[in-house]
Fold these 2 entries.
Entry 1:
Amino acid sequence: MDIAALCDRIDRLDRDIHAFVGEADRRGRLAKEAAANAARWSGERPPLYGAAVGVKDIIRADGTKTRGGSALPAEVFDGPQAVVVDRLRAAGALVAGKTVTAEFAVLAPGKTRNPHNLAHTPGGSSSGSAAAVAAGMVPYAVGTQTVGSVIRPAAFCGVVGFKPTFGRIPVDGVIPNAASFDTLGVFARDVAGVDLLAAAVCDGWEPGAWGTPVLGVPEGPYLGHAEPASLAAYERHAGLLRDAGYDVRRVPALTDFEDMRRDLLLVNRYELVRSHADWFPRYGDLYRPETVGAIREGQRITADEYAAAQQRRAATRRRLLDVMDSAGVDVWIAPPAPGPAPRGLATTGNSVMCLPWSDTGLPALTVPAGFAEGGLPLGLQAVAGPGRDEALVAWAYGLATAVA
């Protein structure tokens, strides 16, 4: 790894894109990391040796400060390095730096811009991670998804994003948002990159041969949240997949989508309050208004309301998996967002198309799928059954080729 070239590239491109959190001596830190790697692996090298990885600024990484995209003192978040970073470094990777996040991975956006059009959002909350990969600053990045924070920015920026099954990557060392949903995920330029990263950071990764999946179109109120142009593109993608030989089945599903949406928000906000129970009373005046509003919403939710919503969520998940099983569907295909990246930086876009898959903890992946009018990227989201992460990534090679 040419550390000078890497840092020169980040310095040059990030003047406009703002994907990385500023760092006083990135070059010096990376030079030391690279030297330590070279000393550690003088012979056979691990799979990510020398690879530069951006790490979302809610994930602790030794040698860097963690601020959660906030104005709070960095020492508030001190603690052991995140397990996911342990695994990346054990595989030989270098932490290129912290990538910009929405404040605490909630709603208040960072300053990152979309590399395809600087006037548009890159998505969020893992905005810097997606943009850094899309701009070619680094080949890989790590983010988190609570509702749509990996899949949506990956689609907006035209890269591959993968959110594994809930719990497949330990979240130790990550600033929490909502414990029932928070999931670590990865970004790469192509499916092969995601495959390499997933093998390094997921528990018990076991590649295999999986055959050709049956694809499902979840017909019903969920798809009605996609913009007309995006929905038309999605139908074209489904047609391309049929032409490529896939069995694409239209299956009534997610008929309870609005109830699912309500319960996810309720659980999310209630758990956000618990995540910030220590920090918010002490530093609430430093929080941005969007985060304060979300916490205030959560404070109005009772324990009984939360428990009832969790029970309904469990029943909703069972119904969705029953539909998937009875219809013989291996992979749901769906738009990753209502449309391409919206203009402006005031929000990170709408996560509604990711919501059911995050609510149910299923593994999801998005691949680039052409461009919208105006040149912004589109993606295709693919969602498999619980624990079928290896199969989903393996199947993604063919899906990506069909819709590229």
Entry 2:
Amino acid sequence: MEHTVRVLPVTRRTLAAAGLVAAATVACRPVRAGDLRVDTALRAVEVLAGRIGPREATSPAYDEAAAWVEGRLEALGWTVRRQRFDVPAGSSWGVPVPGGTSVNLVATRREARPGRPWLVVGAHLDTVPQAPGAEDNASGIGVLLAVAEATAWRLTRLPVALVAFGAEEPRGPTDDDHHYGSRAYVASLSARERRSLRGMVSLDRVGVGSVVPVGSAGEADPLRRELEAAARRAGVPVAPETFQRSSDHWSFVRDGLPGVRLGGTSYAAYHSSADVPGVVSADQLGRTGRIVLQWLR
């Protein structure tokens, strides 16, 4: 007996029958700056700084925070890989901290093929031992999650990896005594991945102020100009900075890769017990996130 297989056309009706209309609708267009949901970022600030609190990179609290962020990324449809690395004992902002292991969370929506262009957006998840870390840096993780939500089913101009870095905070006085997670990530990249990386943006202290600092490690930086142009298109005021090396973008730049920092407005609660969720401005989170989405568009 012969069987005839009928192939139905892909229409909104057939997608609706499969429960896929919403996903198909948002996946058919590029991401826009207006796709950002600030409430997603605010919730992360409340959970990380309000509920979990200080999360030094080798502590049980850091493990709890990493598990929560990993769960949020996976719930949004991202594939998350854990990258473990060793961290030495030291002194973090005047407080002794033990050695141990920490973890990066590396999320991808679709894998960048070696040799093909790709982008990275990152934010550090750890804090100094005495600070709940609302602005430094639950704000950055919050925007990272809002970006993950906005881009989960929408198109970006290039494949993007989202990374929550561990052990960014200092454990000593020199340039080699912090940024452990981002340095481990950069060291893990293959030669082809390095050649094809078109840019890395570090979200670090992005919830205070009325303009968004855009910092480059050197003086003239094409990637910084890209971010400034994205901010203009998104209608967000920025403050360009040069010789800015105090965030995870520096791990990329010092290894010959393109990287810039968003954020870094001075605030009174820096690295203190007063760095609580009330410090963070929803408006500033929104400004920063819109720049990122416009850059990814």
